[in-house]
Amino acid sequence: MQDHTVHVQCSDCPIRHRAVCARCESDELSHLEQIKYYRSFQAGQTVIWSGDRMEFVGSVVTGIATLTHTLEDGRRQMVGLLLPSDFVGRPGRATAAYDVTATTDMVMCCFRKKPFEDLMATTPHIAQRLLEMTLDELDAAREWMLLLGRKTAREKIASMITIIARREASLRSRKPKGMLTVDLPLTREEMADYLGLTLETVSRQISALKKDGVISLEGNRHISIPDLDRLLEEAGDDSDGGMLV
Amino acid sequence: MQDHTVHVQCSDCPIRHRAVCARCESDELSHLEQIKYYRSFQAGQTVIWSGDRMEFVGSVVTGIATLTHTLEDGRRQMVGLLLPSDFVGRPGRATAAYDVTATTDMVMCCFRKKPFEDLMATTPHIAQRLLEMTLDELDAAREWMLLLGRKTAREKIASMITIIARREASLRSRKPKGMLTVDLPLTREEMADYLGLTLETVSRQISALKKDGVISLEGNRHISIPDLDRLLEEAGDDSDGGMLV
DNA sequence: GACGCGCCTTGACGCAGATCAAATGACAGG
DNA sequence: CCTGTCATTTGATCTGCGTCAAGGCGCGTC
Fold first, then answer.
1. Which of A80, A124, A132 shows the shortest C-beta gap to B124?
2. CATH number, domain at A190?
3. N or C: which end of chain B has fewer CB within 10 A?
4. The domain containing residue B119 runs over which residues?
5. Residue A38: which pLDDT band, with cuts at 50, 70 and 90?
6. Is there a contact between B145 and A148 if contact means CB atoms under 8 Å apart?
7. Closest nucleotide (CA of B199 to C1')?
């Protein structure tokens, strides 16, 4: 599935690598091919610190990264979870606004910012595609705000599971067979930073959902969902969870 | 200041009305002029309900609107605060994702969605401008997530005041003279929905900040800030509050 | 002036989740 | 096999904020 290598060709990533793929389909591929390059990161490695100069933009090819804000006293809030195909960086801004960290081994496809901006100015399709992606991210951020501001710890956990299941599903081409399962790509502490909780509360609520039969665990990270509707109900959303199935 | 009328010309709003103004400076103004129209709303009136068909996009000319999510049991979370010049709507999506409500009397400049999308496809500058604005909103949403997930009630109130002061300042052309003052355009309940608190907690924390001399009140809505650094400190941010001064 | 109606403030009390602390399990290296 | 490290779980206690309730203030209307 996520078997891209550092030398993956642009044309290999019709889904994962959208910022590039939008161009792959046109006759100007060669421009992007000339300016793109790949970077690998190890799990735990910081891609860029908040406030640093941001010399590139790019997108995740394989692995997972997070965006986090940190306060001086150490409180942390995750503000973005980047899965393969997600875009990183901000054309038109010189410095990073948050820490970007690889939480698994990760490969990014990067473009030096200036050439990318030049290309964007002459290739309307790129700005239109980026706008679409940014609007999606904004919607996700706003759903996340509802979670952070108004949901209980139990609802937050249930919501997180449905959100990650949904995003993993959208990366997979095939439909899931058998019982729905989710791999949580985060530690309890990272989940806590995602949800605005402490890691102890995350652990307790996962245990509680397990005890109540809403989910079952195999190991610490792998979850199966016997009854999706039950989980969606626990998530407290008024919507259907974005049509997960 | 905010004396635009329903018949305001596009060329009157170089700051407030950015989605239009991007075009005003070009030779294709007439296209936008042909498809734009104005809508007025009274304070409290709903512009559109979540889930409704969204036939238009537009931007706020005068007044203030909010975006809110509501759960079935009535819990509400504000996810956007729209001041003059802010864009509303989402090219490429058919239905609204959240409730849009006028909290003061408000005038919007609208475009039917289809013609606007057509224009966007042929006028690269519009998508580029919208991308820039959307990225700004995304940054604001992420700062808001930090507030919702990790700040104390007192810090939330202090942060809200600095955020609103900053945004009001950016709408004003002239520098503030004398002591910095802010008009809160929201009721205590709306502030609570903004901050993920209850209205009682909002009231208590505002009283506490007043008692401690961080702010002073004239009436319920008008705040003066004797010492901005003190307020920024109370807000708990590691940044400088976006260079308010 | 008296009334009603929003909006706001203040007080008393309870609880969800934070905090502090300790135990358990999973591994990797010696 | 032992040991150290790190992630996780679980328990005991504390506390910030929610909840419930009462009352104040400004303002328009009769």
1. A124
2. 1.10.10.10
3. N
4. 10-144
5. confident
6. yes
7. C8
